[in-house]
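Researcher: Next sequence.
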Amino acid sequence: MQKTVIGSKKLFLVFLALGVLLLLSSWGVLQGPKNAVISVLSPTQSGFVSSSNIFGDFFYTMQKIGEFKDENKKLQEENNSLTYELSQMQEVQRENGALREELKFKENLCTGTECIDFKMGKIIAQSSDGYGQSITINLGSEDGAWMNQAVTSSGGVMIGKIVEVLSDYSKVALIVSPESSVNCLAQTTRANGLVKGAYGMGAKLEMIDQSEELVSGDIVITSGREEGIPKGLLLGKIQNIEASPNMVFKTAELELFADFGHIEEIFLVESK
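Model: Next structure:
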């Protein structure tokens, strides 16, 4: 019974306190404390809102950066693809140019009953002796290659002859090799001799009889006196003629037409 009375008193006091607060609020007495509480809590609330905006901006920026990276990667891949296609087109165009040069040379050389024919190939290896004395090409016996066959670059410029033949590739000794020799003819004076390789990337005109005339700047071509090498292939120009009564033969340096450092396509040559 006593507990019931105490509980009733507490309930009465709670209602009394609420009544007093409502009365004071209606009179405006509590407005000051209320404003103070709001003022204290306002910076915290503002801080939460500001932090929320900062984090939102950060994640939005990171998302945009990711999207930009993906787009940039896609554009780079497309650019690489276009660059590759352009490169391939340029290579085809360059090879077509080499073919046109060789066809033009073939037409100029084809006179009477004798003509030349050719088959296009590529260099797949080069000697590692430091002098570039031989190359390997991707044409072999299955492609019609044979021993001692002349090999040219575009424009009918002889670069060497085949010294080893396998089924699908061949080895070519370049005319700059010291072991190489090609029967030749000075185009103006018709002097016969040999073009022999020298160490490095040069060649000399040798075995010219003292009675023969040599002219500086004269073009030297193949003489056609060697099996597998038709007449008229370009070799070089005569320079620095060496002649003396004490010498058995005349000699001269040869400015070669072939640029051995930049040959890519080659042609097997045969006369018909």
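Model: The chain has a mean pLDDT of 76. DSSP finds two helices and twelve strands in the chain.
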